[in-house]
Write a structure and sequence with these properties.
Elements (H helix, E strand, L loop, with lengths): L2 H20 L3 H6 L4 H15 L12 H26 L4 H12 L6 H7 L4 H27 L7 H25 L2 H36 L1 H5 L2 H21 L4 H12 L4 H10 L4 H31 L3 H5 L2
Helix pairs in contact: 1-9, 3-8, 3-9, 3-13, 4-5, 4-7, 4-11, 4-12, 5-14, 6-12, 6-14, 7-12, 8-13, 9-14, 11-12, 11-14, 12-14, 13-14
Amino acid sequence: MDLIEKLEPIIIFSAVVIGLIFSNIDIIAQNSEYLINIFLCLMLYGLFLEVPLNELKDSFKNVKFTSTSLIINFIWTPLFGYFLGSLFLKGNLDIVIGFFMLILTPCTDWYLVFTKMAKGDVKLSLSILPINLVLQIILLPIYLVIFFSSANTMDYSQLAYSLLIVIVIPFIAAQITKFILNSELKENATELFTNLQIWFLSLAVFCIFASQGGLLFNNLNSVVSIFIPLIIFFGVNVIIDLLVSEKVNFSYSEYASLTMTTLARNSPLALAIAINSFPGHELISIALVIGPLIELPVLYIVSKFCLWVKNSGLFFVCNNLF
């Protein structure tokens, strides 16, 4: 693992703490919220620059893996996530929505790190990234309308605006950059923005907590309560991934890849959409930022569990076909 990748949880947590400290300084608290979208758009520009959408067709070369992953990520997970949120977080609708958005959006970056740690098929996991990205852009607004439009929280014009500002514009800018730059310059630009993504995210997180520190402290119990359904989600899906992999005769490397791509969440897209789609509901964004702080240690533990499955012979298909 690259040093920065290892330190990502610490960097994000530090951004949260520093933001809370600076939330007591009026000039920072009052103005930092205006910078959130700038940092998020820069981060998403780098993400779209990095993701090889022209390789989207590669997602369908392993039909069995792709179909299994998509069913778990975009059918089972939304239904299970909504059930968990409604069961454990029903006292605060904003926290429920934040938890749901976190659960629905598969990770678009560091799941590859944990796939490698678990000795999964990194190339296979990378091939599923473009389709995960495209589908979460399409399906997240649809699922939000389906599950939460009756709660009078949705503002359709704001949702459309957020998709334009933080998705469409960075996406088009990234594609124009790829088109006009030669191979060497495109590679350098991609590498630069890839390295800067964690810092843009951390700056956005700092601004969120600097501007909403008081809101967090007033709702601390509600925010912390998100950990219970999140841990249940991880635990249940670890078992489902193992059982499904055995049922469909996946090799071990396919099993490890499936586990990481269906467990890892924390997409920056969800945070960008939440901030712009739900004005006046900042707890949604705070819930999205808090979630990954527990997710990363869990993914590390799960990667070790996958290796134990491989070495134990518990599931003969995973053991013998590696």
